[in-house]
Amino acid sequence: MHRLRDAEHTPPLHNPGKMATLGHTFPFYVGRKPIFPMDTTLAVIVAIFVTALVTFIIILPGIRGKMRLFWLLRVVTSLFIGAVILAVNFSSEWFVGQVSTNTSYKAFSSKWISADVGLQVGLGGVNITLTGTPVQQLNETINYNEKFTWRLGENYAEEYTKALEKGLPDPVLYLAEKFTPNSPCGLHGQYRLAGHYTSAMLWVAFLCWLLANVMLCMPVLVYGGHMVLATGVFQLLGLLFFSTATSLTSPCALRLGTATLHTHHGPAFWLTLTTGLLCMLLGLAMAVAHKVQPQRLKAFFNQSTGEDPALEWNPEEGGLLSPRYRSTAESPEPQDIPLSEAYSEACCKEEHHREPDCAL
C-alpha cells in the first residue's frame, strides 16, 4: 500500500498499479540488476592469468637448480605486467570519488535518504554507485550500481535516456547527466578523448609485451629488452594523454545534497604508472647487462653459454640466422680417400684431354 500511494504522485509513464503488483520498486523503476562483486571483463582477465600462473607452478618442480628461481621470477613478472595492461584498459577506476551525504531519492518525491555515492570514471565510460546507510530505507533496499559507456559503438546519450525512463534515483541521474554530450561541464568530450587515446597506447603496450616474451625465448635478448622498454614507454605515453586531456577544462562541481563529490586519480592510474616504470627499469637493466655481463644475462634466461664466448651466437649479428662456425681444433682432420682403379684411369684421361685447353 505504501508503494501504491507513492506511485500516485508519479507521471503516467507506466501503469503504477500493475508495476506494484509485479513487485517493482517505487516509484516506477523496473527492479534492480543483480550486482556482481567484480566487473565481468576484469574477472575473465584475472581468471586467465591466474590459470596460467597456477599451471606454471604445477610444472615448476620439474625445473632443477637455480633455474627454478629464475623461471619463477621471469614468469611471475611477465604475467603481472600483461595482466595489468589488460585489466586497466577495461577498468573503471582511473578517476574515482566517493562522498557520504543526505540527498533526495527519487523524482517527484520529497523523501531524503542518507547514502554513500561513488563515481568511477574509466577509459570507456562511468560507473555510479548508490548505497544507503543503512541499506534498508523507505521500505526499500538502496543499493545501485549503474554503468554508462561511451566506447565505440555505444551511445551515451541513449543510455542516459533509458535511465531516465527507468526512473533511477536522483543522485545517479545527476552524476550521469554531467557526462552527457550536451552538458555545460564538457566532461563527455574531455574524458572520451582521454579514454580513446589512452586505450590505444595500452593496446600498443600489450603488443610490445607479447613481442618481448617471444624474443626473450630466443637468442635475441637485447631486442627483447628493447621491447620491454617500449612496453613501459607506451604505458607512460597513455598516462600522459590521459592527464593532458582531463586537464583541458576546469573541474565541474558535483553537488549531491549537503555535500560535494571530489574526484582524484584512481588505482588504475597509479597501477599503470607503477607498471610502466617497472618495465622501463627492467628494459634499461637488460640493456646494461647485455653490454657488461652478457653471459650472466644468458644464464638468467636459461640460454646455453659456451666455454669460448667468441664462438657463441651474437644477437646483434643476426641471431638465429647467423651460423656458428667451428674452430680449427674442432674441425675434422683431412683424410685421404682411396679411389678405385677405373675411376683413377678416367680422371687421368680427362685431365689428358684438357691439357691443350689449359695451355691456351
**For the CA atoms, what is the radius of gyration?**
34 Å
Decide which structural class fits the backbone.
alpha+beta
Average pLDDT works out at 77
Distance between the termini: 123 Å
Q: What is the strand content?
A: 5-15%
Largest beta sheet: what is the strand line-up? 4-3-2-1-7
Task: Using the alpha-carbon principal axes, give the shape.
Answer: elongated
How many beta-strand runs? 7
Short structural description:
The chain is α+β, with helices and mostly antiparallel strands.
Structure overview:
The protein is built from 11 helices and 7 strands. α4 (67-90) packs antiparallel against α9 (267-292), α7 (187-216) packs antiparallel against α8 (221-246) and α9 (267-292) packs across α10. 51% of the residues lie in helices and 14% in strands. It has helices at 2-7, 16-21, 40-59, 67-90, 156-166, 170-178, 187-216, 221-246, 267-292, 294-300, 341-359, and strands at 95-104, 112-121, 125-137, 140-149, 254-256, 259-261, 264-265. The protein has 360 residues and is an alpha+beta fold. The strands form 2 sheets. It has a 5-stranded antiparallel beta sheet. It is elongated. Mean pLDDT is 77; it is low at 1-37, 307-331 and 355-360. A hairpin with a 3-residue loop joins β2 (112-121) and β3 (125-137).
